[in-house]
Amino acid sequence: MTEVVTRPETTPVPPVTGALVLAAKDVRRGVRSRSLILTAVVGPLVLGLIMALAFGGSGGPSATIAVVDLDATPTSRGVVSVLSEQLSDGPVSLRTDLGDARQAVADEQVDAALVIPAGYSASLFADPLALQVVRNNQRAIPGEVATAIAGEVASQSDLIRAASSTVVAIDRSQAPLADVGEIRPAITVDIGNLQESFSAALYFGPLTIFLFLGLGGAARNLVREDREGTLARIRSVSISPRVLATGSAIGVFVQGVLASLVVYAVSSLLFGAQWGDPVEVVLVLVALVVALSGLSTIITAAARTEAQAEGWTNAFAFLFGVIGGSFFGGAQFPGLLGTIGSYTPNAVAMRALIELGPGGRDLVSVLPLLGALVAVGLVAFVIGSQLMVRRFA
Amino acid sequence: MPSVAVSCTALRKAYGDHLAVADVGFSVQAGESYGLLGPNGAGKTTTISILCGLLQADGGAVEVGGAPMRTGRCEAKRHLGLVPQDIALYPDLTARENLRFFGRLQGLGRAELRTRVDEVLEIVALEDRAGDRVESFSGGMKRRCNIAAALLHHPQLLVLDEPTVGVDPQSRASILDGIAALQEHGMAVLYTTHYMEEAQRLCDRIGIIDEGRLVAEGTQAELLAAVGQHPVVRLTVDGDPAVLAGALAGERFVVRTSVGEGRIEVAVTDPARSLAPLIERAEQVDARVTGVEVVEPDLESVFLHLTGKALRD
Ligand SMILES: Nc1ncnc2c1ncn2[C@@H]1O[C@H](COP(=O)(O)OP(=O)(O)OP(=O)(O)O)[C@@H](O)[C@H]1O
Ligand SMILES: [Mg+2]
Questions:
Q1: Cβ of A241 and B72 within 8 Å?
Q2: Other Cβ atoms within 10 Å of A354 Cβ, number
């Protein structure tokens, strides 16, 4: 060994810089070890592909949708028969009473109900009434399929009106309109296509589970760094526990976003999954990863051994995955478990994604869901860094 | 620069019922090298951990470069560089990546970081391997890189916790030379070891620690004076060395005896004339002598004298 040459000027590293330096190290190691790629990228893609194949091509789980005709006119009856014929997937059971239909949805005899409101055919000539949807929050995808059908029907109002007016013109002099059996408009609604629109759920569910699993990596890393002495070295350099927690959370966040983007890109470009508007999808993914990164800080601060890190992570992932419906393309448990499950970050993100899907709502209407995810992440992070302070004080 | 690099007073740390460090206090002057010498489990790492602000002591205080040490963020930490007992490096990163990472945390700016990384790589003679992952290094190279990571910010105080464990003699010599060179350039060194040769060779002053207590402290000459300047006959025996010590108590050629487990050290006036009677006495008390060594008194003798234990088993 030879001599020292210069005496450098050092200034204490600012907390933000410290956290970023720590995070960059974690990301570099994560990418280099390929652990991230294996868990959070390959896993969801393989699982999603298997599910896609199992459900026949790219279709999702089938939905049973009831149609309630409160209008009871030749036009509405025509719309019902056209829907019945075209929605080949799953019988469309016909109901005439709204209460009856609500009960059927609540009892899960059907997944959702489409309601043709009273006065529908009359409204076609002025301001068309929309078909309403009775949905069960635990059956997110069928609810969205029903909403999408309502959207399809609304978009084809012109065709329905044309059919009605033709028949009305021909039959003006004859029997009362109510006696005309039904008026069949030439509209097309293909449930296969509609369900295909939600095939992203097949990849998104597994992605959330594998993100959960990946987030335990930070906890395992910290335990290992503690054992191997690098943590001692980091802490001897005036890095506070809070900076440690922040660095770890940012590292998880960056890796989680990277993994999500890869799964999104590969599943949509190579496997043809329909996720929706790219900007909205990225926002949902980022919000979900914020929630998970926050939660990861708690496990990281609390786990003292690799076995604990591993065990708690798996428990988290599978519990949230199962009750949040991420294993089953969004399908959730009935009853209390389903209600609890619908509040898991994965379920909330899934709902946001589906609501933004084709024929769905705009970004503003799902902002509360995204806000909730971010809030969960921040609260969990505050708790996690507080635990970290207690651990290293 | 303050004249005291580090001072600690009345440090105490218990793990449950077990008192790992009990009332340890010492100080290291600027530019001085201080050795903390003690066997496995003596409390060296615990003391170092408190001193570097990694562990909250149950009692006592530490100041580094005049600033109080705390477990969180503090000024005192800027003045010290820690070489942990384990290889505290990321095996999957290259030497340069490791050094850049720790250098950034130590507060070096980009430009300075580049020159300092090159300089410390040169100090530990790893320039050629800078781009290789640490996991591909030999034990000695890892140890050298482990030291390099503590030097980047050129601390006033370098704290090394058994930095030569598991290293071949050649690498060990090069590491000790390097540390000596750093000290010559004004860096204070706090060095823990259970190798007395290292403490003897490197340290201006030595503290002997056993079962969490600092049992003696001083320059090597001062410590040796405590056991007297007489040559020592070191006997390894099958049987009870304490009985043998008793039998030797009245002998004229015996200055002093120190008993350890399975061994006894006898300070004598004239080793050449003492060997035969020593072995004879041993046989008389049924203590079969299995090893004989005649040495000038060294830290090993001091340690045995103070604690009744061998530094190494
Ligand atoms: N985290 C811990 N929990 C419980 N006991 C501990 C812990 N760390 C150390 N000890 C105990 O404290 C005592 C001192 O340990 P320490 O590591 O400081 O010794 P040391 O002198 O560094 O030993 P070595 O030369 O083996 O490194 C030992 O008896 C050890 O078993
Ligand atoms: Mg130790």
A1: yes
A2: 26
Does the global pTM surpass 0.80?
no
Contacts of A251 in chain B (CB under 8 A): none
SS3 annotation, A313-358 = HHHHHHHHHHHCCCCCCCECCCHHHHHHHCCCHHHHHHHHHHHHCC
Q: Which CATH class is domain A65-196?
A: alpha beta
What is the Cα gyration radius of chain A? 27
Q: Among A17, A20, A225, A238, pick the best mutation site for testing chain B contact (most B Cβ within 10 A).
A: A238
- Would the CATH topology of B4-222 be identical to that of B232-296? no
The structure tokens 């970004």 sit at A363
Place of tokens 């384990």: B86
Please tell me the distance between residue B142's alpha carbon and the centre of ligand 2 in angstroms: 18
- Contact (CB, 8 A) for B267 and B255: yes
Sequence ranges of the domains in chain B: 4-222, 232-296
| Chain B CB contacts of A235 below 8 Å | 53-54, 71
CB contact under 8 A, B101 and A241: no
Q: Does the CB atom of residue B45 touch ligand 1 within 6 A?
A: yes
Alpha-carbon span A382 to A388, nearest angstrom: 10
Q: What is the pLDDT tens value at each position of chain B, 313 positions in all?
A: 558 999 999 999 999 999 999 999 999 999 999 999 998 899 999 999 999 999 999 999 999 988 999 888 888 998 999 999 999 999 999 999 999 999 999 989 888 999 999 999 998 999 999 999 999 999 899 999 999 999 999 899 999 999 988 888 888 888 899 899 888 888 999 999 988 889 988 999 999 999 999 999 999 888 888 777 788 888 998 888 888 888 888 888 888 888 888 889 888 888 888 888 888 888 888 888 898 988 888 888 888 888 877 776 5
Domain regions of chain A by residue span: 15-55+198-392, 65-196
d(CA A70, CA A116): 6
- The complex's ipTM works out to 0.82
Nearest-Cα distance to chain A for B147, in Å, is: 11
Cα of A389 to nearest chain B Cα, Å: 9
Return the best residue to mutate from B11, B12, B17, B18 for the ligand 1 pocket (most ligand atoms within 8 A of CB).
Answer: B18
What single-letter amino acid sits at A86?
Answer: Q
In this structure, what token pair is assigned to residue B164?
Answer: 């030569």
Tell me, using a 6 A CB cutoff, whether residue B219 lines ligand 1. no
Give chain A's end-to-end CA distance (angstroms, integer): 37
Between A74-86 and A157-171, two packed helices, what is the crossing angle to 10 degrees? 130
Domain B232-296 has CATH 3.60.20.10: no
B146 to chain A, closest Cα gap in Å: 10
**How many angstroms does the Cα of residue A101 sit away from the middle of ligand 2?**
73
Q: Which CATH number does the domain B4-222 belong to among 3.40.50.300, 3.40.50.1370, 3.30.390.50, 3.30.750.24? A: 3.40.50.300
Identify which of A22, A238, A240 has the shortest CB distance to residue B78.
A238
